[in-house]
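Appendix B, Record 12. Input sequence as logged:
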Amino acid sequence: MHGSPAVLGANAHRSQSRLFAALLFLYRWIVRKLKDRRNLNAMMELSDEQLKDIGLSRDQTESDVHVYCRD
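Logged structural output:
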């Protein structure tokens, strides 16, 4: 009824691999969100003239903030 030790070991290894992959995905997602947030904060500190220089308006940056917050 019980699986052989080799099969049980392989299942445990697969389970650990999936857990590692999930943790790695979560880590990368958090790093990406933190980077997005830092970039957004930096952009919000720019003056209207500086935003104009890079082709954005204050309205565009504020609308991006609301999109970010909904994620």
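DSSP finds three helices and no strands in the chain.
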